[in-house]
Inverse folding.
């Protein structure tokens, strides 16, 4: 067999599961104590849900070892960088952007781009909220977007 390389592009379950953990961590925070850590975890979960939608995964199989061992190396690369939620969303493949926008607009009767614009830098801004003179964020909007992107990501995974 020798060395065989396989490269795929699409959604990725491990990044999705990591996003779910940040969303769960946010929801563990009691309602009466939901400040910066809550907002940061929600925003980071949205970031990871968006990033999990466009991932390149490269796997290299190599059977050039004694005793019939097969070695493999796996590399997972998110194709989108940065923390601006709107910028990351707009870097997704156009089919995903169009589908997400249509579903969001139908379900929430609002514009996805405008809502992402409103909270696009929450992760960056709220990590160091104590350094800011004034800062605000819409926690309900963050909650809705986190749930939306979680469900949207789930729907993009291949069905068996």
């Amino acid at each position: 067999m020798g060395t065989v390389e396989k490269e795929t592009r699409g959604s990725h379950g491990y990044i999705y599961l990591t996003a779910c953990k940040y969303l769960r961590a946010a929801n563990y925070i009691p309602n009466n104590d939901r400040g910066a850590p809550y907002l940061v975890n929600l925003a980071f979960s949205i970031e990871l849900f968006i990033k999990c939608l466009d991932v390149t995964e490269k796997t290299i199989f190599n059977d050039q070892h004694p005793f019939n061992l097969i070695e493999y190396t796996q590399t997972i690369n998110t194709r989108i960088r940065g923390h601006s939620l709107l910028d990351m969303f707009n870097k997704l493949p156009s089919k995903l952007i169009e589908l997400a926008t249509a579903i969001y607009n139908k379900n929430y009767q609002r514009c996805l781009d405008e809502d992402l614009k409103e909270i696009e830098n929450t992760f960056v801004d709220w990590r160091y909220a104590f350094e800011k003179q004034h800062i605000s964020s819409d926690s309900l909007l963050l909650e809705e977007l986190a749930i939306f992107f979680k469900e949207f990501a789930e729907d993009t995974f291949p069905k068996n």
About this structure: The helical segments are 13-28, 36-51, 85-90, 94-108, 112-119, 122-127, 139-156. Residues 13 and 52 are 7 Å apart (CA to CA). The beta strands are 3-10, 55-62, 71-78.
